[in-house]
Amino acid sequence: MRKQRLITSGLAVALLLAAAAAVGVRAQATTQATTPPPAFAVGQGPEGVATDGTNAYVANQFSNSVTKLAADGAAVATFAVGRRPVAVAFDGSALWVANYLSNDVMKLDPATGALLGTTTEQGQQLAVFITVL
């Protein structure tokens, strides 16, 4: 009887080790290296994004700027805007930026960033308007 228990417990240990090895192999087989998504150089606190079909424009709320990105993600230009831009939109010819703390919306030339006009409204309402636009 004693030999039988030792053989049984030895068999149990062997099965346990085999199971642990199998789990380890399975874990190694299913663990894959993940590639992080690409990062783009923009200002601090990117908040809103718009595109004109060729470039992307990112409102940087803590840098008070809009970054223009090429299709490959390279930063093409940075435009100075009002305080805490939270939304940006493109209407086919102009870039619109809603500045929360400045309580205004700026109309910019998307090629140069030149100011084409400014309208004063409430920042939160403008952010909603620009996002829906």
Question: What does this protein look like?
Answer:
With 133 residues, the chain is of the alpha+beta class. It contains 2 helices and 8 strands, in the order αββββββββα. The strands form 2 sheets. It has a 4-stranded antiparallel β-sheet, with no helix packed on it. The chain has a 4-stranded antiparallel β-sheet with strand order 5-6-7-8, covered by helices on one side. The longest helix is centred in the first third of the chain and has 29 residues. The chain starts with a helix and ends with a helix.
What are the key terms here?
single chain, 133 residues, alpha+beta, 4-stranded antiparallel β-sheet, 2 helices, 29% helix, disordered N terminus
Blueprint of the fold:
Blueprint: H1 2-30, E1 46-51, E2 56-60, E3 65-69, E4 75-80, E5 85-90, E6 95-99, E7 104-108, E8 115-120, H2 123-132
Antiparallel strand pairs: 1-2, 2-3, 3-4, 5-6, 6-7, 7-8
Low-confidence stretches: 1-20
**Strand percentage:** 25-35%
C-alpha termini separation:
84 Å
Estimate percent helicity.
Answer: 25-40%
How many β-strand stretches? 8
- Describe the strand arrangement of the main beta sheet, using strand numbers: 1-2-3-4
Shape: globular
What's the mean pLDDT score? Answer: 78
- Rg, please? 29 Å
Tally of helical segments: 2
Structural class designation: alpha+beta
Can you summarize the main beta sheet? 4 strands, antiparallel
Order of helices and strands: HEEEEEEEEH
